[in-house]
Design a protein that fits this description.
Order of helices and strands: EEEEHEEEEHEHEHH
Number of strands: 10
Strand content: 25-35%
Number of domains: 1
CATH superfamily: VC0467-like
CATH class: Alpha Beta
């Protein structure tokens, strides 16, 4: 089962402190290589304006950089709607990930995607690991770590933090109810 373009919602019983109450967009899922995603609801205290200032641009963005994951935690990416692109943009369905200096230059002039979130770092799973965590078939536990839901701009960009995770749980719960009625 492929998870590319889906959202992972941390199961309420997930014990990992880093991933607890996380909402992750999966952008790569290859059988022999593993899976990658980016957390979208873990804001840091680092202002986006400071990132732009470090590159020589004075902007008035009031948002903060989000923790995208524990891998390459200092590598900055832009998760955004797919109508916009930069020189290094990786499209995933209706959404994209960009990571280059040109994206910062474009955004400094007001040329921004319809929806976007700046992240630092990514998440990664080995071959078969993500599927096992979603299905609850890990050898050391029978608990499911992740619920999956479809992507929408609302869940990805309109809310943040724990509220975003709560909305993900509501959508996942409604999906389960809809299956039986």
């Amino acid at each position: 089962m492929g998870y590319v373009g889906k959202i992972l919602v941390a199961h309420p019983n997930l014990e990992s402190s880093f991933f607890k109450k996380s909402l992750i967009f999966v952008f790569e899922d290859v059988d022999r290589q593993g899976s990658q995603g980016v957390i979208l609801n873990k804001p840091t205290e680092f202002p986006i304006s400071q990132l732009f200032n470090s590159k020589g641009y004075d902007v008035d963005y009031n948002d903060v950089v989000h923790k995208g994951g524990p891998i390459n935690a200092k590598a900055v990416s832009l998760f955004h709607t797919g109508e916009w692109q930069s020189t290094n943009t990786f499209p995933v369905g209706n959404y994209s990930l960009s990571s280059d200096d040109f994206m910062i230059e474009k955004m400094s002039t007001g040329n921004t995607p319809k929806g976007w979130r700046v992240t630092a770092g990514i998440c990664g799973w080995g071959p078969g690991q993500l599927q096992a965590e979603v299905e609850g078939s890990l050898p050391h536990t029978r608990n499911k770590n992740w619920l999956t839901i479809p992507t929408t701009d609302r869940i990805l960009f309109d809310v943040d933090g724990e509220e975003q995770w709560q909305l993900g749980l509501e959508i996942a719960s409604q999906q389960m109810v809809d299956q039986y009625f």
